[in-house]
């Protein structure tokens, strides 16, 4: 275990599918670099489904909180806060399962947790210094999701629409939208420039104040 002389600044970035969470996370990472910022993607913590057939995997509800392996995610964030590197799972959306690879993540002064349910779990929220909800109009989110799923995940238009109507939309209303009340900051028009600038300015001030503990 490595020891760290400061308490990392943990940022949670939540919001619906296609809201612009990744834009916020990547802008923070680009502004300060990989030595200062580590990003943990909640998407990579979907439960392992090796025991299920490909057909059964396709039918799972991936927009429900129970689709994620919460204990592992919480354990990994605790480890990063304690100065320990982790091996983050890698999820393969084309297989609806984890790949055989892992992604090394080093501890850093700033840790960003990005995901649909980043603000859902109390244990996770209690480790956060700043909780952000990216709020974007549903039609914009749907268009972005469709473009992403078709180009990046090999999905058909019909399958994207079916999944959106059956699980994405109802789960957003039931589980994701309510987590706005847990946010310190709500970005009402998605990852707009002024909002992201405000967040990076806050992170810059935090990094500037980091000093070894006495």
Could you provide a short overview of the structure?
The protein contains 7 helices and 7 strands. With 214 residues, the protein is an alpha/beta fold.
List the helices and strands and how they pair.
Blueprint: E1 9-15, H1 21-32, E2 37-41, H2 54-58, H3 70-81, E3 86-92, E4 97-105, E5 110-114, H4 122-125, E6 130-134, H5 138-153, H6 157-176, E7 185-187, H7 193-209
Helix pairs in contact: 1-7, 5-6
Description:
A five-stranded parallel beta sheet has the order 2-5-1-6-7, sandwiched between helices. The protein has helices spanning 21-32, 54-58, 70-81, 122-125, 138-153, 157-176, 193-209, and strands spanning 9-15, 37-41, 86-92, 97-105, 110-114, 130-134, 185-187. The chain is globular. It is α/β, with parallel strands linked by helices. The longest helix has 20 residues, at 157-176. 40% of the residues lie in helices and 19% in strands.
